[in-house]
Amino acid sequence: MVPADNCGGSTWRLFFMFKTFSATDVGRKRQINQDFVFSSENPVGSLPNLFIVADGMGGHAAGDFASSFTTRTVVDAIKVSEQDTPIRILREAIEKANNALIEEAEKKPEYEGMGTTIVAATIVDDYIYVANVGDSRLYLVNDDIVQITRDHSLVEEMVMAGRIDKEEARVHPDKNIITRAIGAAPDLKIDFFDMHLQEGDRILMCTDGLSNMVEDQDIRMVMEGENDVAGMVYALIKAANKNGGKDNIGVIVIEPFAEEI
Question: Which domains, from first to last, does the chain contain?
Answer without folding.
Answer: 2-150+180-260 (3.60.40.10)
